[in-house]
Design goal:
The complex is a heterodimer of chains A (429) and B (490).
Chain A: H1 20-45, H2 51-63, H3 68-82, H4 105-116, H5 139-177, H6 182-198, H7 201-221, H8 226-240, H9 250-263, H10 268-284, H11 289-309, H12 314-328, H13 342-359, H14 367-383, H15 390-406, H16 411-420
Chain B: E1 10-11, E2 13-16, H1 20-28, E3 36-40, E4 51-52, H2 54-66, E5 72-78, E6 93-94, E7 100-101, H3 105-112, E8 121-131, E9 141-144, H4 149-154, H5 160-174, H6 179-185, H7 193-201, H8 205-215, H9 224-237, E10 247-250, H10 255-268, E11 272-275, E12 279-284, E13 289-293, E14 298-301, E15 304-307, E16 317-324, E17 344-349, E18 355-356, E19 359-360, E20 365-370, E21 382-389, H11 394-407, E22 417-425, E23 433-435, E24 438-441, H12 455-466
Parallel strand pairs in B: 1-14, 2-3, 2-15, 3-11, 8-17, 15-24
Antiparallel strand pairs in B: 4-6, 5-22, 7-10, 8-9, 8-10, 12-13, 13-14, 16-21, 16-22, 17-20, 18-19, 20-21, 23-24
Helix pairs in contact in B: 1-10, 1-12, 7-9, 8-9
The chains are: A mainly alpha (429), B alpha+beta (490).
Chain lengths: 429, 490
């Protein structure tokens, strides 16, 4: 399997390697592909979205899932005929309105004629227009109509469910081969939207929960697939929404980031997700100041342990900085510990600076440590609304000297910092 | 392959013995079209690396009692007076329970030769250190050895400072071939690794124990050069074939399974196999040897390859193979999502962690625990392979280790031992020896992890048979005999 290098974090993306022998075969395949493409486009141009065209899109998309126009053709095939027509003014997931239970001939014929015009297979059952033109219907007749409508609706739902689940199934092998193809994910989302609109809430909910399971599997395969993370957030949002009678999943999602981090500390997406979940997590826990303080300390410990074994890992330092900003930049947005006094903030910041300095005992060439010390010392000054004192200036200069040595590529940046802060660093020979 | 009696053919090579090395030689020659006669005086495959049913173990022990000077001695079987032991063929006790690191050369050769398809490989899971009880009423415990960054992050058994030391060492080892690192360890190359860890990393006793255990050093005094090589192999093997494990173990009896698969490949390639057949006498002529086999047949060959059975220089080991009536499930849990369930766990009882006859032990005891998933025992039981340096009281040391290990397993009752096989194995000769037309391959290795250095001797033997003109880039590189459907995904 070919390694696509940086863009895939070393996770192999499948690719076919060709020998000369295979070249002829490929030329044939290209011809077949072109034929297929021409057929689909011809049908679409004629507004033909029949079951045959649908089958053609299956073939074509298996060969090229990135062909987004063909995904659209497929969508149209589904809407035009394979999926049931939603009856006017009602949707299965909402409470059925009492509007027009009786089928007057005009409405039904309108339904039928619209389905006929697209030349598709089984349109939902409609009462034949040629039925006896009785103008007044009895109560018994009305009940029969109701029952039939209900049966039709259920049948439609079952039919739709089958089709939609088949569609989800169809995309899976395509996703396995191209896990970062936008169009496949987008199609899945469209199908899942149809699931909400067309199927009953319990059924829809179950399908969406399976979707959550799918994102977990995708993230097991490639922990840093950012599509999968974004997608997961969207799935969680839907599961929490009223449309699926949802409740908050913030605790389990937080736990999920913990698990991912334990599997691989360098998981930037997991740490990032974690930081995004925290405000809501604490709100939902109705965390008081004590609880918030305890939570903050736990997070500090966790990231401290991580940095202790991975001082060169940028994602860890980003998370640490997120926690520090919680202390320093707390005006105008939710923070973990809004009730901290100035004194508490200063104490924590100082403690962190000291703790990080200890790391230098063993990791004296980790540039991110020096950067953190530099930044946090300035944070401290900012917090206390003062300029760096003499000792701090010495420290800043010495750290900057280390940074110049360890990271000569960014010499411009170090020079800027030097100038902006009025530090003049004496270079060691 | 020659038709007619074996006496009519001038064999290109007669291979005597079906131990690992001779079997790999047969595998390497399986597409060469050479006339190969492969014999073994035993009535089973595997030689010194065989796996035994209980019946075969008993026969083996009986036979050793009559012999005096082989590599194996002092063998005995003990069956405690308890119920639970299953029928003899339900067991496959391995004489060579070595684990094979994922990055080992042997595995690459098994893959390139396609022989790997016949072997079912199982994951070797965690390595543990046995911790003696802290007080008179306390139980002993097992501590997992962290060998990845995430392991070190999660463990609560090490201080923050010690963790930093460990991380620095792991980083050092991964890169130990680079000039900067070489300058640091070269002066210590032949000195014990523990000394280097002390001098260069100021490591405390506990961390040193972790590191030495990863090397599976039998005397705890492995040299710096050898030790760093093994640890690097362990670290780079971690995750190589899947998350959560660094080494593999063949199902159904370890190395014996590889020997059998290799011989099978030899047979498919046309080699003639005769078990229960040894060499009664031999006479060397100008460019051929005439052998009289124990079957009475007289055969002529251009080259004779045997395994050297003389005792060589180096320490012997004592081994206790114990069947216990418990699945020891807690040892075989996979710690990572998506990782295969391991069937082998390694527990080290470091020097000093046991007191035997009033004295603390001076060398480690290694316990290789095998679940029934290895096929070596029935469900609900496990096989333990305990190894230590052979000393005058090694037997007692192993018994004591077994007792302590079982009491550390945290069960309501300590698991019962159902069967014990004890023996001592001497170090073999380490070099090949070519004497006119007879090539003696080195003796079996006592190392607890597969030692790739033995492979070069097999390769040299192969070159001798196929001749100098054959390019050794073809060595062990075959295509499948029949088209196979390769599954690229897990």
């Amino acid at each position: 399997m070919a390694d696509q290098g940086g863009s895939n974090h070393g996770i192999a993306r499948t690719s076919r390697t060709r020998t000369e022998e295979q070249r002829q075969k490929d030329l044939e395949r290209i011809k077949d592909y072109r034929d297929l493409e021409d057929q689909v486009r011809a049908h679409a141009a004629k507004n033909d979205f029949s079951a045959d065209v649908f089958a053609l899109t299956s073939k074509l998309l298996r060969l090229n899932p990135e062909y987004y126009t063909v995904w659209n053709v497929r969508r149209r095939c589904l809407i035009s005929g394979l999926l049931s027509k939603p009856s006017p003014g009602s949707s299965p997931s909402k409470a059925s309105p009492t509007s027009s239970p009786t089928a007057t001939t005009t409405t039904s014929s309108a339904e039928c004629s619209s389905s006929l015009s697209t030349e598709t297979p089984p349109a939902p059952e409609c009462p034949t227009t040629g039925k006896s033109g009785t103008t007044a219907e009895t109560e018994a007749d009305k009940e029969d109509e109701e029952q039939k409508k209900q049966q039709n609706k259920e049948q439609d739902q079952q039919n739709d469910q089958q089709i939609l689940q088949k569609e989800l199934h169809f995309t899976i092998p395509l996703l396995l081969e191209s896990p970062k193809c936008y169009w496949i994910w987008s199609y899945r989302l469209w199908i899942l939207k149809q699931v909400i609109e067309r199927l009953s809430v319990p059924v829809a909910r179950k399908i969406w929960e399976e979707e959550l399971g799918l994102t977990s599997k995708m993230l097991l395969r490639d922990q840093r697939n950012f599509h999968a993370w974004g997608y997961r957030r969207h799935v969680v949002e839907q599961l929490e929404s009223p449309a699926l009678e949802g409740k908050s999943l913030v605790e389990s999602e937080f736990e999920f980031t913990t698990k991912k981090i334990e599997q691989n500390l360098s998981n930037f997406s997991a740490w990032h997700s974690r930081s995004k979940l925290i405000p809501r997590l604490l709100d939902e826990r109705n965390a008081d100041d004590e609880a918030r303080k305890a939570f903050f300390e736990e997070e500090l410990n966790k990231i401290g342990e991580a940095i202790n074994v991975g001082p060169d890992d940028q994602s860890l330092w980003y998370y640490h900085q997120f926690l520090m900003l919680n202390l320093v930049s707390f005006v105008g947005h939710p923070t973990i510990t809004p009730a901290f006094t100035q004194e508490e903030r200063v104490t924590y910041l100082q403690r962190e600076i000291e703790g990080i300095q200890e790391l230098l005992e063993d990791y004296d060439d980790a540039k991110l440590i020096y950067e953190a010390l530099f930044d946090y010392t300035l944070y401290l000054c900012q917090l206390q609304e003062r300029k760096p004192n003499e000792q701090e200036e010495e420290d800043l200069k010495s750290w900057l000297a280390q940074l110049k040595k360890l990271d000569p590529m960014r010499s411009g940046r170090w020079a800027d910092l030097e100038r902006d802060l009025g530090l003049r660093v004496v270079e060691e020979a | 392959m020659a038709m007619g009696s074996i006496a009519d053919t001038l064999w290109d090579v007669v291979i005597c013995g079906t131990g690992l090395q001779q079997s790999l030689l047969a595998l390497s020659l399986s597409r060469s079209g050479k006339n190969i006669l492969h014999i073994d005086p035993n009535d089973y495959y595997g030689g010194a690396e065989a796996a035994f049913s209980l019946q075969e173990a008993e026969s083996w022990v009986d036979r050793l009692a009559t012999e005096d000077k082989g590599l194996f001695r002092s063998a005995s079987i003990t069956k405690p007076d308890v119920t639970g032991l299953s029928f003899p063929r339900a067991y496959s006790l391995a004489l060579a329970p070595q684990l094979i690191h994922a990055r080992s050369e042997l595995l690459s050769q098994l893959v390139s030769s396609r022989a790997y398809r016949q072997v079912e490989f199982l994951a070797v899971g965690s390595f543990y250190i046995f911790k003696a009880p802290l007080g008179p009423d306390q139980q002993p415990s097992l501590v997992r050895i962290p060998s990845t960054r995430e392991d070190v992050f999660s463990t609560t058994a090490i201080s923050a400072k010690a963790k930093r030391g460990l991380m620095k060492f792991l980083k050092f080892v991964l890169d130990y071939h680079s000039p900067e690192q070489r300058d640091a360890w070269k002066p210590f190359a032949d000195k014990p690794l523990v000394d280097f860890l002390q001098e260069h990393f100021k490591m405390d006793a506990e961390l040193k124990t972790y590191i030495i255990t990863l090397t599976l050093s039998l005397d705890g005094r492995i040299s710096t050069e050898d030790g760093l090589a093994i640890i690097q192999r362990h670290l780079t093997s971690m995750g190589h074939f899947g998350p959560g494990f660094a080494a593999l173990y063949p199902k159904w009896g370890g190395i014996s399974e590889i020997a059998q698969v290799a011989c099978r490949a030899g047979a498919v390639g046309g080699a003639v196999y005769m078990l229960d057949t040894g060499i009664k006498s031999m006479a060397t002529a100008a460019d051929e040897i005439e052998l009289e086999l124990s079957s009475g047949d007289k055969v002529k060959t251009k080259l004779l390859v045997r395994g050297d059975e003389k005792v060589g220089d180096g320490p012997s080991i004592s081994r206790l193979v114990a069947v216990v009536g418990s699945s020891l499930k807690s040892l075989f849990e996979s710690t990572i999502e998506g990782a295969p369930t391991p069937c082998v766990a390694v527990v080290a009882l470091p020097a000093g962690s046991l007191t035997v006859s009033g004295e603390a032990t001076t060398s480690p005891v290694y316990v290789f625990a095998h679940s029934s998933g290895t096929g070596e025992c029935p469900n609900g039981q496990s096989v333990l392979y305990l190894t230590t340096m052979a000393t005058s009281n090694a037997r007692e040391v192993l018994n004591s280790a077994l007792g302590s290990f079982l009491s550390a397993m945290e069960q309501d009752q300590a698991p019962q031992c159902l069967y014990q096989l004890y023996y001592e194995q001497a170090a073999g000769v380490k070099q090949s020896r070519l004497d006119e037309l007879t090539l003696d391959l080195p003796g079996p290795s006592l190392s607890l992890s597969m030692d790739d250095s033995m492979l070069k001797h097999v390769r040299e033997a192969w070159q001798k048979v196929v001749g100098e003109t054959v390019d050794d880039a073809e060595y062990m590189v075959f295509t499948d005999r029949e088209p196979v459907d390769d599954d690229d995904y897990e």
